[in-house]
Amino acid sequence: MNKIVSLIGVPTDIGAGARGASMGPEALRVAGLIPALQGHGLQVLDRGNLSGPANPWQPPVEGYRHLPEVVQWNQATHEAVYAELAAGHLPIMLGGDHCLGIGSISAVARWCREQGKKLRVLWLDAHADFNTNELTPSGNVHGMPVAVLCGYGPKELVEIGGTVPAIKPGVVRQIGIRSVDQGEKRFVHEVGLEVFDMRYIDEMGMRHTMELALGLMDPNTHLHVSFDVDFLDPEIAPGVGTTVPGGPTYREAQLCMEMIADTGLLGSLDVVELNPALDVRNKTADLAVDLIESLFGKSTLMRKDR
């Protein structure tokens, strides 16, 4: 794993249905993300926050809320993440809402194409985020990033990575899903997205789930983790705008992160949808930092290096 990580703050809630995720990057810094990563032998470059348009808080136009602003924020995210990958660093995009996954993952996909690397995307989330402007009940673009990345969305967004689609559905593994809109559900089945929902995790356990989600990777695979904090059960992570009961417990989430770390293939990370305005004494940010540490090798027991 790369020993130099770059933090890129993207302070916007432009794609969300509640205000406040724009404060997420600072909450993660306040929760000690930088010293936590340094404690694992990593060199941390904090690139500060990107800038972009303010949230106009307008109703949807043709099924999309704030599309011009969403495009601007995602273009900036794409360029920043791509620059860090090109410099040989491991980018950590601190959101902001999950629409920013469009810019981040399109940059990772572009870099993988240029390097001849395979891509695997783990989408840790309560939601499938596979809506389109026809399917969406809200018009909020944070419910659409996976669909956009797979080529289903407005031209300005699907083309951000320079190749359409940016990724194929087959590179994605969704974990922790438990809230999917009706039309979205049909669409997910149509395109063959691989989804490990909470029922699957309940029946088969997190270990088996992660073994499948991480299967068939090799040393030439770039693993990208897109971690929406609403993946976690709201009992332990209240600071999100879209809480859905029945998510992974603390230990299930830790196991998930530890098994990702065990692969040694983590190449980039998004941490999104942390909303300090809805949090309790920065509890959710503290937990997110704890789990990010596990992604970078913190484990419960002393384990010998493999």
UniProtKB/TrEMBL annotation:
<dbReference type="InterPro" id="IPR020855">
    <property type="entry name" value="Ureohydrolase_Mn_BS"/>
</dbReference>
<keyword id="KW-0464">Manganese</keyword>
<dbReference type="GO" id="GO:0004053">
    <property type="term" value="F:arginase activity"/>
</dbReference>
<keyword id="KW-0056">Arginine metabolism</keyword>
<keyword id="KW-0479">Metal-binding</keyword>
<dbReference type="InterPro" id="IPR023696">
    <property type="entry name" value="Ureohydrolase_dom_sf"/>
</dbReference>
<comment type="similarity">
    <text>Belongs to the arginase family.</text>
</comment>
<protein>
    <recommendedName>
        <fullName>Arginase</fullName>
        <ecNumber>3.5.3.1</ecNumber>
    </recommendedName>
</protein>
<comment type="pathway">
    <text>Nitrogen metabolism; urea cycle; L-ornithine and urea from L-arginine: step 1/1.</text>
</comment>
<dbReference type="InterPro" id="IPR014033">
    <property type="entry name" value="Arginase"/>
</dbReference>
<dbReference type="Pfam" id="PF00491">
    <property type="entry name" value="Arginase"/>
</dbReference>
<keyword id="KW-0378">Hydrolase</keyword>
<dbReference type="InterPro" id="IPR006035">
    <property type="entry name" value="Ureohydrolase"/>
</dbReference>
